[in-house]
């Protein structure tokens, strides 16, 4: 994350970038968030830490989430333009660092997702706020399947604002150091492709409007739409407890008054997951043993009782 400082005459032609600034620094015109390496912006946090906390001392994860969610709120209300370059992989915590910014840029390579239910967790970093405000039930579909969005999908669902070709990002970044932000955005932005998700909205809205995960899966299975049946299969592979908690969190987030209220709810839920078996098991299956065969407990949706779900929303 780097502040862009306006270049003065006689200085180097390279963008004037420094790593630290104050919000009231008058020389800083915008903050730019870019990813290191070639894969993308950010694939999320070190989920091994969450497993260690769940199996031992929960304090490190609780402290991390408290600070992370405060940062997400700060980004959303930052007084200067906050430009996030959402190129390549943007998942989990990467969404929290970018999708709350004021200028969110995707490319043709963007793959954006909140895949937390696949590890026994729930969408956080303000993800329930964003997903619950996507058109129709598209956000519910993404949350329960853990599917990824393209850049065009992200713009259509409110996770991004502009599409800049990946090859043009260096030029766009350089322009931010010498020109007005609105001019740079106008000159480098290109029309995004049509959203593939929007093309499936009819069956998505119908199936995911159900009140329970069980009924959603049943509607998907009975819909006669091949893509819907495939979605049902993906859902059934995720943590049953996480699925039920996620659906309730999304429904509640729709009625919450602010991002901060959603982040507060997510903090309660995240801390509650440390007391359950699925988060450490999901991380084990994905990144420790890498067998991709998690043994969820309970293993079936119908065996997740109301008390277990309610525990994640207790004060």
Automatic annotation (TrEMBL):
Catalytic activity: 3-hydroxy-2-methylpropanoyl-CoA + H2O = 3-hydroxy-2-methylpropanoate + CoA + H(+)
EC number(s) given by UniProt: 3.1.2.4
Protein keywords: Hydrolase
Protein name per its UniProtKB record: 3-hydroxyisobutyryl-CoA hydrolase
Pfam families, sorted: ECH_2
PANTHER family in alphabetical order: 3-HYDROXYISOBUTYRYL-COA HYDROLASE, MITOCHONDRIAL, 3-HYDROXYISOBUTYRYL-COA HYDROLASE-RELATED
InterPro entries: ClpP/crotonase-like_dom_sf (IPR029045), ECH_dom (IPR045004), HIBYL-CoA-H (IPR032259)
The organism's taxonomic lineage, starting at the top: Bacteria, Bacillati, Actinomycetota, Actinomycetes, Kitasatosporales
Species annotation: Streptomyces polyasparticus
CDD domains assigned to the protein according to its UniProt record, in alphabetical order: crotonase-like
Domain annotation Enoyl-CoA hydratase/isomerase: ranges: 23-313
């Amino acid at each position: 994350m780097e502040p862009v400082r306006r270049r003065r005459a006689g200085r180097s032609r390279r963008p004037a970038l420094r790593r630290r600034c104050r919000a009231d620094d008058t020389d800083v015109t915008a903050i730019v968030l870019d990813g290191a390496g070639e894969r993308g912006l950010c694939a999320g946090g070190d989920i091994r830490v969450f497993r260690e906390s769940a199996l031992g001392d929960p304090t490190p994860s609780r402290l991390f989430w408290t600070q992370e969610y405060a940062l997400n709120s700060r980004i959303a209300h930052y007084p200067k333009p906050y430009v996030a370059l959402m190129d390549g992989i943007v998942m989990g915590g990467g969404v929290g660092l970018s999708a709350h910014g004021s200028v969110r840029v995707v490319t043709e390579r963007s793959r954006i997702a909140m895949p937390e239910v696949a590890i026994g967790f729930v969408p956080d970093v303000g993800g329930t706020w964003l997903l619950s405000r996507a058109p129709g039930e598209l956000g519910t579909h993404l949350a329960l399947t853990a599917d990824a969005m393209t850049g065009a999908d992200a713009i259509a669902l409110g996770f991004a604002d502009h599409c800049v070709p990946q090859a043009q990002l260096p030029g766009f970044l350089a322009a931010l150091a010498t020109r007005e932000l609105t001019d740079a955005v106008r000159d480098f932005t290109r029309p995004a492709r049509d959203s593939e998700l929007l093309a499936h909205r009819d069956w998505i809205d119908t199936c995911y409007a159900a009140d329970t995960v069980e009924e959603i899966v049943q509607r998907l299975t009975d819909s006669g739409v091949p893509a819907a049946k495939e979605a049902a299969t993906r859902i059934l592979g995720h943590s049953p407890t996480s699925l039920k908690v996620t659906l309730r969190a999304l429904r509640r987030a729709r009625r919450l008054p602010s991002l901060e209220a959603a982040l507060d709810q997510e903090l309660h839920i995240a801390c509650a997951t440390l007391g359950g078996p699925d988060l450490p098991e999901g991380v084990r299956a994905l990144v420790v043993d890498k067998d991709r065969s998690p043994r969820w407990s309970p293993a079936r949706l119908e065996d997740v009782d109301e008390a277990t779900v309610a525990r994640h929303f207790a004060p």
